[in-house]
């Protein structure tokens, strides 16, 4: 059994301002997306300018923060919102949802497309490969904060299990790191190389939906369900798995549609 590295959630202080590790992880997420997107935009035939990339990252960041918070409130803790509506705005107390963030980003893309006269799926296919690294940083932030811990594990069979002080005295899976590796790094590698060649329009977006849905579903088997929710359908599915299932189904339909009816994107990627 490993000892949980109880890290101070505050990375450093600037006078009366406290800079939290979780905030730095968000900064790293948006910075990595901007750098990778800018690099691809500069490749011949990309069809993108650095100004468009800057605008896309800005709209995406707004979608992540607003959608992520609203999604957590609606999907995971709506009763608390009814009791205390102002809790929606107290983001420093924690509570962000990937699926809500995804809906927020999709809305942001629609706005971006209207302003820049781009196709929705052209933007989706261009931006999808940059998302997983942001998810990786986010899960690392969860680990540093000692939140969203995993299920109880037997240290004899899971020697890397650890006790999370904010949970209880039992050794648990560090499921935040599982998610960082699966939904983050591994999905990034898959999408980066898959999108390095011209693909039918919608295909890269579809691969993101399928990949995230599958990896999130796998990781949820090791993650402790939210205490106030527990298990949903059939008594073993978590809320995260239920929300990921439509992503997988829609992603498969979109992928089949892309290869049957789509034409290769004209943008060359490196």
TrEMBL record:
It holds the Pfam family LGT. The chain crosses the membrane at residues 20-37, 57-76, 96-113, 120-140, 177-194, 203-222, 242-259. It comes from the Bacteria. It is a multi-pass membrane protein. GO terms for cellular component: plasma membrane. GO terms for molecular function: phosphatidylglycerol-prolipoprotein diacylglyceryl transferase activity. Pathway: Protein modification; lipoprotein biosynthesis (diacylglyceryl transfer). It is an enzyme of class 2 (transferase). Its main location: membrane. Keywords: Cell membrane, Lipoprotein, Membrane, Transferase, Transmembrane, Transmembrane helix. InterPro entries: Lgt. Its EC number is 2.5.1.145. It is found in: Cell membrane. One of its GO terms (biological process) is lipoprotein biosynthetic process. A 1,2-diacyl-sn-glycero-3-phospho-(1'-sn-glycerol) binds at residue 139. Signal peptide: none annotated. Belongs to the Lgt family. Catalyzes the transfer of the diacylglyceryl group from phosphatidylglycerol to the sulfhydryl group of the N-terminal cysteine of a prolipoprotein, the first step in the formation of mature lipoproteins. This is Phosphatidylglycerol--prolipoprotein diacylglyceryl transferase. It comes from Thalassolituus maritimus.
């Amino acid at each position: 059994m490993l000892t949980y590295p109880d890290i101070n959630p505050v990375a450093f202080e600037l006078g009366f301002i406290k800079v939290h590790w979780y905030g730095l992880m968000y900064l790293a997420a948006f910075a990595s997306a901007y750098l990778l997107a800018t690099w691809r935009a500069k490749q011949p035939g990309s069809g993108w300018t650095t100004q468009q990339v800057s605008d896309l990252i800005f709209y995406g960041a707004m979608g992540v923060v607003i959608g992520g918070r609203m999604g957590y409130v609606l999907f995971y803790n709506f009763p608390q919102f009814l009791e205390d509506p102002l809790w929606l705005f107290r983001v420093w107390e924690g509570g962000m949802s990937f699926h809500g963030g995804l809906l927020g980003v999709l809305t942001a893309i629609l706005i971006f497309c209207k302003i820049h006269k781009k196709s929705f799926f052209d933007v989706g296919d261009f931006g999808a490969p940059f998302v997983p690294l942001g998810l990786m940083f986010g899960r690392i932030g969860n680990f540093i904060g000692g939140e969203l811990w995993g299920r109880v594990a037997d240290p004899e069979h899971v020697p890397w299990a650890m006790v999370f002080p904010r949970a209880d005295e039992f050794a648990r899976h560090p499921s935040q790191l599982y998610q960082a590796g699966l939904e983050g790094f591994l999905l990034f590698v898959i999408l980066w190389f898959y999108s390095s060649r011209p693909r039918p329009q919608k295909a890269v977006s579809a691969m993101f939906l399928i990949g995230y849905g599958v990896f999130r579903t796998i990781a949820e088997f090791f993650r402790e369900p939210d205490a106030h929710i527990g298990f949903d359908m059939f008594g073993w599915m978590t809320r995260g798995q239920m929300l990921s299932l439509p992503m997988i189904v829609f992603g498969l339909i979109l992928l089949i549609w892309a290869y049957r009816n789509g034409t290769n994107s004209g943008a060359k990627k490196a």
